[in-house]
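tokens incoming
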């Protein structure tokens, strides 16, 4: 798989920014079929950094409704990537 097919988008939240500042860990939404090795390789190729560790979580869908219409959000996979000391991803800086 191409790195841009594996990494869907960065997760922008208060918790993810705390992880960046305190732990040097970056959070991404990734393809549900991707494993940790593929995610590691994709992040290293896309951002030119060295990845030390990858943790993944399957985020379950939640029920939602709008008026009488009921539905569910999509199930997605989240990857928390820890980088080597001194490495940073500029995409997250200054937001």
């Amino acid at each position: 798989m191409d790195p841009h097919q594996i990494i869907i988008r960065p997760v922008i939240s208060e918790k993810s920014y705390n992880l960046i500042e305190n732990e040097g860990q970056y959070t991404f939404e990734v393809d549900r079929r991707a494993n940790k090795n593929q995610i590691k390789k994709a992040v290293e190729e896309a951002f030119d950094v060295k990845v030390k560790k990858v943790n993944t979580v399957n985020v379950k869908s939640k029920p939602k409704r709008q008026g009488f219409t009921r539905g569910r959000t999509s199930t997605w996979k989240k990857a928390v990537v820890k980088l080597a000391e001194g490495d940073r991803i500029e995409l997250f800086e200054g937001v």
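note: Residues 36-47 form the longest helix (12 residues).
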